[in-house]
Specification:
The complex is a heterodimer of chains A (about 450) and B (about 200).
Chain A (H helix, E strand, L loop, with lengths): L4 H8 L1 E3 L6 E4 L2 E5 L4 H10 L9 E4 L14 H17 L2 E3 L9 H8 L7 E4 L13 E4 L2 H10 L1 E4 L3 E8 L8 H12 L7 E6 L1 H4 L3 H9 L8 E3 L4 H7 L8 H11 L12 E6 L6 E3 L7 E3 L13 H11 L14 E4 L1 H4 L2 H11 L7 E4 L4 H9 L2 H8 L2 E2 L20 E4 L14 E4 L2 H10 L10
Parallel strand pairs in A: 3-4, 3-6, 4-5, 6-7, 9-10, 9-12, 10-11, 15-16, 15-18, 16-17, 18-19
Antiparallel strand pairs in A: 1-2, 2-8, 13-14
Chain B lengths: L5 E9 L6 H4 L39 E4 L11 H9 L3 E4 L4 H10 L2 E4 L2 H13 L4 E5 L4 E4 L2 E4 L4 H9 L3 H6 L2 H9 L10
Parallel strand pairs in B: 1-2, 2-3, 3-4
Antiparallel strand pairs in B: 1-5, 5-6, 6-7
The chains are: A alpha/beta (about 450), B alpha/beta (about 200).
Chain lengths: ~450, ~200
């Protein structure tokens, strides 16, 4: 019987397999940031252990960093960032600190450097590590104990998850983006739908997505409960990688591409579960509740709790969000718009927002935060920053920013945002803050009207 | 890791689904570089409500959290496990768990127990009817017992053994250092390095 992409990549990385034990899996790339690593480095020190493969490890500062120029003023954040610097120096790990041209959100810089390649196993102490699966590898988030384990051994013991195919037929209509698609998928299968699975996104609509769009899709796999999501590599993938600093060159490039082309699910392979979705039927999609599965088409209304799968959760969510059933989603007013994060902080996302904002003015506080210093540079070379500034939006430095309420960019209690990030959990963007997840295009249009809006709604 | 064999304690019913790790411990608490002191951050937003179940005197000192489905979804933060343990929990019972949370819990000796939704609800109702109810979670027998009731749960043999013995994963893996070295010798030379 044929094998799925996930099975092929997994088998390629089994260091040891023994009856009654999880597989010992080799890890090709370990991404590190300041929040989930200090206790892991401490653990190494206490046990007298070293980092086995500093040459397969890379670190950046992202979660705590302010997105305005200047030093970190919060002493606790400062200590955490300084701890990362000390640990990287002591254990010989490459670090891209604040202000460095290579700094950025951990899931933006891996692909940008060409370190994220097809067929690899990639981990990071961050659940959005699933992003890297867009290149056709197995990439998943881990906790700090596992971070320490990978630092010490470059391996992880793990049971192979089941496999799920999400078949996306048809083509996304104009104005409908990868973000709308993944929000619709999560609403369909639920926040627990992917638990225990590696998801492979397949089908015509997926093949037509850019690498940026594919990363947005895989990024939010975890919001459907799946630790990893992946997309088979193809010419789009190879074209993205070619010429990047860590991509293979010369004869190695040809060898690598030949291998990468074998990384597809065999025609006779069988998935444990198959989900089908028609892309051509989709419209811009937004969330109304407090988990990413509580979403609906922008053209619809806030649902009645009893019409949802989990009425108790929906009632609680509507109370927290201060929304009433039946209110058209387009009538929801927001205070703040955030464009950025590992979900939508890449150049293509900024272009989409700029396209909407060109020649228009924002009526809300609007933060545009590039995912990395390189994205910032590229955006400025294209003049996107001038578009944002002319529209009255704030053009910021690279970082996780308002995605997670850990740096100065937060919502105040009761404030409401349209955000291109990945989580609308209670208090995620700041205690008492209310979040609607949207695409970059919807975020930009919303900034113009002050209400949840699609670009097509603008005159 | 602290070994887990059997534990008897009182249970707190948390009748909420999708208790994500941002609720278990909000991000603002993750800035610490130590492994201790996270109990203050446990459910810190919800605990501001005097009616919240953990604030009710009857449930003080309880050590088994019985939650609605999809407990521990979202962020990979292991701080969620540390916060639960440091607050005094030894066991979390739910019908479904976020994969990363569940994994993190078993690395730390916090036992995640999966029971069918109707069994979880029966246990929640029992703990609501009698907050002093003693519940026993027996990992050796893979069984939860309360009053005259009992329910079996599944956990793979390897994880169960590791928890019963309180074994450290890194130590176990390093016994196979030769396998790792030999795998490394066979890796493709064109694979990227960060140097």
């Amino acid at each position: 019987m044929g094998r799925t992409l996930a099975e092929k990549v997994w088998e390629q990385h089994v260091v040891r397999r023994a009856e009654g034990e999880p597989d010992l899996l080799y890890i090709d790339l370990h991404l590190v940031h300041e929040v989930t690593s200090p206790q892991a480095f401490d653990g190494l020190r206490m046990a007298g252990r070293s980092v086995r493969r500093p040459d397969l490890t890379i670190a950046t500062e992202d979660h705590n960093v302010p997105t305005v120029l200047g030093p970190i003023t919060d002493p606790v954040s400062k200590t955490q960032v300084e701890t990362l610097r000390k640990n990287c120096a002591e254990f010989g790990v490459r670090l891209h600190p604040m202000g460095d041209a290579g700094q950025g959100v951990v899931h933006i810089i891996g692909p940008q450097f060409g370190l994220t390649q097809p067929g690899m196993t990639i981990v990071c102490g961050d659940s959005h590590t699933s992003t890297h699966g867009a290149f056709g590898g197995i990439a998943f988030g881990i906790g700090t104990s596992e971070v320490e384990h990978v630092l010490a051994t470059q391996t992880l013991p793990a049971y192979r998850p089941k496999t799920m195919a999400i078949e996306v037929s048809g083509e996304l209509p104009p104005g409908v983006t990868a973000k709308d698609l993944i929000l619709a998928i999560i609403a369909k299968i639920g926040t627990g739908g992917g638990q225990g699975y590696i998801v492979e996104y397949r089908g015509e609509a997926i093949r037509k997505l850019s690498m940026e769009g594919r990363m947005t899709i895989c990024n939010m796999s975890i919001e459907a409960g799946a630790r990893a999501g992946m997309i088979a590599p193809d010419e789009t993938t190879f074209a993205y990688l070619k010429g990047r600093p860590h991509a293979p060159t010369g004869a190695d490039w040809d060898t690598a591409v030949e291998y990468w082309k074998s990384l597809t699910t065999d025609e006779d392979a069988v998935f444990d579960t198959v989900v089908e979705i028609d892309a051509s039927a989709l419209t811009p999609f937004v969330t109304w509740g407090t988990n990413p599965g509580q979403g609906a088409p922008l053209g619809s209304a806030v649902p009645a709790p009893e019409d949802t799968d989990d009425p108790a959760a929906a009632r609680r969510a509507l109370e927290y969000m201060a929304l009433s059933p039946g209110t058209p989603l387009r009538e929801i007013q927001v205070d703040t718009v955030f464009v950025g994060s590992c979900t939508n902080g890449r150049l293509e996302d900024l272009r989409a927002a700029a396209e909407v904002l060109r020649g228009r003015r924002v009526v809300t506080r609007t933060l545009i935060v590039p995912g990395s210093m390189l994205v910032k540079l590229q955006a400025e070379q294209e003049g996107l920053h001038e578009v944002f500034k002319a529209a009255g939006a704030e053009w910021r430095e690279a970082g996780c920013s308002m995605c997670l309420g850990m740096n100065p960019d937060t919502l105040a209690p009761g404030e409401r945002s349209a955000s291109t990030s990945n989580r609308n959990f209670e208090g995620r963007q700041g205690k008492g803050g209310r979040t609607h997840l949207v695409s970059p295009a919807v975020a930009a249009a919303t900034a113009v009207t002050g209400k949840l809006t699609a670009p097509a709604d603008l005159a | 890791m602290e070994a887990f064999t059997t534990h008897t304690g009182r249970a707190v019913p948390l009748r909420r689904s999708n208790v994500d790790t941002d609720q278990i411990i909000p991000a603002v608490w993750l800035k610490q570089v130590s492994r201790t002191g996270f109990e203050k951050g446990l459910f810190s937003a919800w605990r501001e409500d005097p009616e919240f179940i953990l604030n009710q005197p009857a449930y003080q000192g309880a050590s088994i959290l019985v939650s609605g489905p999809d407990f521990g979804t979202g962020s990979s933060r292991e701080h969620a496990v540390w916060a639960l343990q440091q607050y005094g929990f030894r066991v979390v019972i739910a019908a479904r768990f976020g994969d990363i949370f569940r994994n993190n819990a078993t690395k730390m000796g916090l036992l995640p127990v999966v029971l069918p939704a109707e069994t979880v609800e029966a246990l929640q109702a029992a703990a609501e009817a009698d907050p002093a109810l003693e519940v026993t979670v027996d990992l050796g027998e893979r069984q939860v017992r309360w009053g005259a009731e009992s329910a079996g749960f599944e956990i793979d043999d390897y994880t169960r053994w590791r928890l019963l013995e309180g074994l450290d994963d890194i130590g176990l893996t390093l016994r196979n250092a030769d396998d790792i070295a030999s795998y490394e010798n066979g890796r493709q030379s064109w694979l990227p390095t960060t140097v």
